[in-house]
Write a structure and sequence with these properties.
Helix content is 37%, strand content 19%. The protein is an alpha/beta fold and 439 residues long. The model is unreliable at 1-18 (pLDDT under 50).
Length: 439
């Protein structure tokens, strides 16, 4: 449904003047709360929208109650081609008619591996998994095996999964465990630095480099703030890692294939030793990958370093990778995404100025960040100078007005966001601002 047929007032959708009930979503939510902690299967969703989705297509979500949302969350990123892309879904379903899990090798995993390595350009070999969290664990284990060292340098605000040895949060200026039940000692081997500061890394490595196995980072910090690396920063990190015999790991679970076929490594022209991928890799299907240099990756192949998983390189997953990469190669969406993103961000800035709201919009075409405030943001610390809590509250108003967005301010743009979606997005955004300023 297009926006002119629907109005939003005080958070209630209206069709031809009649409020649209949320009865079915509420019924399902109450049932879910009886069976599932918090009613959700990922804690990330505890603070998200509460409507239950009945179907999704392209850039749109449709709830079980008949509401629609224009989606700039994209399932937390995976739906880079939009929801349920026909070519990907058709190829996956056709492949799965021949079987799903063989417990043995099959042709699709070879084709998928070829396509991934060709797309990345720098990587020699790849291993498939199911989640980005798993891929990170494999990368860390491999780095420690090949170096014989245990310490890992990571950076403030970068996300590498939810397991005990990588999940962190800041409390009182100190980075440590983020969840009750975490084994705090599992973080002892991690050395946390501010990002985008090559001097800080150089100083630490001069002091402790002989014990450092890996440096891991999001090469562009999308998960928190969509912050690009400073000019020359990644090159300096690459040089320092090579100088000290340290494995450089890029966590490209978000940026990979989203910023172009070669991801951030191609965009910034810096090759890591290992990199993890997910989200945009498989058209919305649950697939992750670890790619890297042959001499490192071969340590899995001789059995010295264990990397296992029943669902790794499943027919479903590798068929999705093949279909997605063929689509991204034959019909690259980056230009269309850049055009939509440029008009959308300019429109959001214009509406904020019109309504005297101090909104800050910054980032990349495929992912940008919206927040309240005005600061030069270069890392996690400077990101905290913005009024992130105020935007989180505003995001709930955006949800009420039919824009499906994340409370942390990251907006994802897909290949399916076009002119019609742009018009609807800006109309709904302005109605949300008007409602917000009246409260």
């Amino acid at each position: 449904m297009i926006w002119p047929d629907r109005a939003v007032w005080k958070g209630m959708s209206m069709i031809k003047g009649e409020p649209l009930s949320r009865a079915r979503s509420e019924e399902l939510r109450l049932r879910a709360l009886e069976l599932t902690p918090g009613g959700v299967h990922s804690n990330v969703r505890l603070s998200g929208g509460t409507d239950f989705i009945g179907r999704a297509k392209g850039a749109w979500l449709h709830t079980v109650d008949g509401r629609d949302y224009l989606d700039y969350l994209l399932g937390q990123g995976p739906n880079f081609l939009g929801h349920a892309p026909d070519d990907v879904v058709d190829e996956v379903f056709e492949a799965c008619r021949r079987g799903v899990i063989y417990g043995g090798q099959h042709e699709l995993e070879v084709v998928a591996s070829e396509l991934v390595c060709q797309a990345l350009g720098w990587a020699d070999m790849v291993r498939f998994g199911v989640s980005g969290t798993e891929a990170v664990q494999a990368a860390l284990r491999l780095a420690r095996a090949v170096t014989g060292r245990t310490d890992v340098v990571r950076f403030e605000g970068h996300y590498h999964g939810w397991l005990d040895n990588v999940l962190t949060a800041q409390t009182g200026g100190v980075w440590g465990a983020a969840s009750a039940g975490q084994v705090v000692s599992h973080l002892d081997d991690f050395l946390v630095l501010p990002w985008n500061d090559a001097d800080a890394l150089a100083t630490l490595l001069e002091q402790r480099g002989e014990g450092v196995a890996a440096v891991i980072m999001e090469p562009v910090m999308i998960n928190a703030g969509v912050i690009e690396p400073r000019s020359g920063y990644l090159e300096q990190v690459r040089h320092l890692c090579s100088q000290h015999g340290i494995v450089l790991i890029f966590d490209e679970v978000i940026s990979g294939f989203r910023l172009g076929l070669g991801g951030a490594a191609e965009k910034y022209n810096v090759a890591p030793d290992l990199a993890t991928y997910g989200k945009a890799l498989a058209g919305g299907f649950p697939v992750a990958a670890l790619a890297g240099r042959r001499e490192l990756m071969m340590r899995f192949g001789d059995g010295e370093v264990n990397h296992s998983g029943t669902f790794n390189s499943s027919v479903m997953g590798t068929a999705a990778v093949v279909a997605t990469l063929r689509r991204l190669t034959s019909d690259p969406p980056c230009t269309r995404i850049a055009e939509h993103s440029a008009e959308l961000t300019a429109g959001i800035r214009g509406l904020a100025e019109k309504h005297s709201l101090p909104l800050r919009v910054a980032g990349l075409p495929a992912a940008f960040h919206v927040s309240f405030g005005n600061a030069e943001v270069r890392d996690y610390r400077s990101l905290q100078l913005l009024d992130l809590a105020r935007y989180e509250r505003f995001s709930r108003c955006l949800l009420e007005h039919g824009l499906w967005v994340a409370g942390r301010g990251v907006w994802y743009v897909s290949a399916c966001h076009g002119d019609a979606e742009l018009e609807v997005a800006l109309t709904r955004f302005e109605k949300a601002i008007s409602d917000w300023t009246e409260r």
